[in-house]
Amino acid sequence: MSLQEIFASRMSRMKASEIRELLKLLDQPDILSFAGGIPDPALFPADAFFEACGVALAPDKQAQALQYSVSEGYLPLRQWLAEHMAGLGVPCSPDNILITSGSQQALDYLGKMFLSVGDTALVGAPTYLGALAAFNAYEPRYDQLNPEGNRTAESYAEAAGVGRVKFAYLSPDFANPTGETLNLAGRERLLALADELDCAVIEDAAYQALRYDGEPVPTMLSLEIARKGSLEDCRTVYCGSFSKTLSPGLRLGWVVAAQPVISRMVLLKQAADLHTATLNQMAVHQVASTMFEEHCADLRKVYGGRRDAMLAALAEHMPEGVSWTRPEGGMFIWVTLPEGVEGSKLLARAIETERVAFVPGAPFFADGSGTNTIRLSFSNSSEADIAKGIARLGRLLRG
Amino acid sequence: MSLQEIFASRMSRMKASEIRELLKLLDQPDILSFAGGIPDPALFPADAFFEACGVALAPDKQAQALQYSVSEGYLPLRQWLAEHMAGLGVPCSPDNILITSGSQQALDYLGKMFLSVGDTALVGAPTYLGALAAFNAYEPRYDQLNPEGNRTAESYAEAAGVGRVKFAYLSPDFANPTGETLNLAGRERLLALADELDCAVIEDAAYQALRYDGEPVPTMLSLEIARKGSLEDCRTVYCGSFSKTLSPGLRLGWVVAAQPVISRMVLLKQAADLHTATLNQMAVHQVASTMFEEHCADLRKVYGGRRDAMLAALAEHMPEGVSWTRPEGGMFIWVTLPEGVEGSKLLARAIETERVAFVPGAPFFADGSGTNTIRLSFSNSSEADIAKGIARLGRLLRG
Fold it and tell me: In which region does residue A39 sit, left (phi positive, over 0), alpha (psi from -120 to 50) or beta (all else)?
């Protein structure tokens, strides 16, 4: 008897990450790790959360904080988010907002809502590997999204075969893993393509608040509202997250979309986990409404300095034939190694001989290409460790 | 343009509950509601959670409480649960345990793991409607589970058609909605049937800690371990929840199963929401490890008294032709009305004329039958309100 033999067909696509076991070793204190895409815990507004949980669990609120609540999410938080989104060029009401347990959950629900087996999802190459993991459960095929290229809607539609193109997924600002930002012309082209394909656009805005320089580019959703006149006529679904700004451990994200989309996502959430923890929503509401902008400004100073330190160290230490992105925000720099140098093999050697770590790039490609790429995260290392670690990596690559 | 037109086929099965809108009206203070299956918030261990969140967010722990954590769940909580399960006749290790965001999430992941389109899920008639909602997303067919009946494995397998029977789902103790408990012989018959069908058994133990009288019946999983010798050879997946004992608003549940099942569910969780909120796991660990048994004993006293009050009131006020269950625990009594009296129509009249509410029974049947049934919850009403409300309901039914 083995239950694995009766698993659903989708389970064949749910694979353990090959590098996950390796990354578990990175707790060793002598390793300088640029692997995890995680915020620096020293920057969490922990005292504010201590206070906010105290308020939510005080006698007048505790019954609410510990009780079941509605699947849509805590209304004061949705009201705060509606104002926040208005500031991003997205006028909306709380009825356009669903609270999710992190934006990862939004990706799962969007896959669930749109993808029948064999439908096509358009994704970048590379793209966020957590998005591929979320979508894989619904057994799509993938096609390559390239808003800076010339492929026609017809070509995408023909390639989709018996299924159809259901959505284009992208993280337009400081994307994981590349750190790159899609420019205004690319955003407009993508919206036009989505109109031609009659598909949704999933805008993953996880890093949007972390811009260190350059001019902000309007969100995909705000650009589509400008084209169509109203959020209710838009095909863009915006996924926000507090994980990179306030705290990932509280698992708080949100979705903004036309009401018929949100109301169906509410049904999915009700069926899948009832609602996001009430206490967490109340605490995040209090912290966000008192200090969100000011806290993000502090983060930008620190993370921006770390990005500068990593770019400077790369320029100093990388040998010829190695290139990298110059992100205006976020947490990541994407490095392309010389043809034939494999990121995964380099990682094994980097840990063994230089005690430095990163994430190999291949898992970020739906088609398994990109073996000569790696992702470096600068968010959770001091500038001194960044200088030291990149020097080690350079030594290894010159080696 | 309407995105609904490109939704996945599963969305046609995700329907808003007809009674949900009606139940939203029940906040009116003059209505005596036996509708929601929710704990009494006055019984939450709120001071203990206030203290536990303070501990988790104190300077030495806050970086961990607010940071990303592993998909499996917080190890000290899994260790506590392993001991707790041993006390229920299920010796296991933390590697046999996955922490979920409520047991509703476990049902979603189990549907996802086992069900391809057209596979069969065996469910009671009636059964927990949230289980039907979770499974519906994976487009199964349903067949009726009746461990006290005589249907053979062959008959189930034949009826399954092109798919196959993947699991039997049940809540063996004080089930939602009936309050009934499956006896030992029924549990053994079900395990034998599952062996013949080579399918999984999903044991939803949400109410198990709330037994008010009678002898505990061993869990399905402990009975299967006794048959097979080891948890690793078992096909039963046990789903536990803190929602009915400590707090539903923190969204904390757990799954216990053979390691290959847990490791695949970990992949699903990683892809779907990364992990359950770290702070919540730390707080529940502290509260559970200091007061779980003692707190459950307090709950049993209060809820047991309310069950007694409702049974007494039903005996006093119900007219002839109305029957009901006599649960040994949980939160619910299930009432069968005379043939032809529709629960949903009765509800409309009950709210309108008698200011009393309950949940109509039909949504708890996968096939939409059971129109002459209703579910009463006694958990969130005082004994005095129970006496008054059941008197009103009796007046209406005699009316």
Answer: beta
Nearest CA of chain A to the CA of B356: how many Å? 21
Band the pLDDT of B399: cuts 50, 70, 90. Answer: confident
Q: Which residues between 242 and 261 in chain B have a beta carbon less than 8 angstroms from any beta carbon of chain A?
A: 243, 247-251, 258, 260-261
For residues B306-315, one letter each, b for 16 or more C-beta atoms within 10 angstroms of the residue's C-beta and e for the rest, the string is bbebbbebbe
Q: Please check whether residue B397 is in contact with residue B318, taking contact to mean a CB–CB distance below 8 angstroms.
A: yes
Residues 1-40 of B with CB under 8 A from A: 1-11, 14-16, 36, 38-39
CA dist., res. B264 & res. A15, Å (int): 9
Per-residue model confidence as pLDDT tens digits over B167-185: 999 999 999 999 999 999 9
- DSSP letter string over A120-185? EEEE-SS--HHHHHHHHTT--EEEE--TTS---HHHHHHHTTTS-EEEEEE--SS-TTT-----HH
Q: Is the ipTM value over 0.90, yes or no?
A: yes
pLDDT tens for B67-95 read 999 999 999 999 999 999 999 999 999 99
pTM of the model: 0.97
How does DSSP classify residue A217?
P
Q: Is A67 on the interface with B (CB under 8 A)?
A: yes
Domains parsed from chain A with CATH numbers: 3-45+293-398 (3.90.1150.10), 64-291 (3.40.640.10)
Subunit contact B8:A119, Cβ cutoff 8 A: yes
Q: How much is the average pLDDT of A244-254?
A: 98
**Looking at chain B from residue 159 to 188, which residues have their Cβ under 8 Å from any Cβ of chain A?**
164, 166
B334-344 tens-digit pLDDT: 999 999 999 99
Question: Which residue is associated with the tokens 């230089």?
Answer: A354
Closest by CA to A167, choosing from A194, A147, A192, is A194
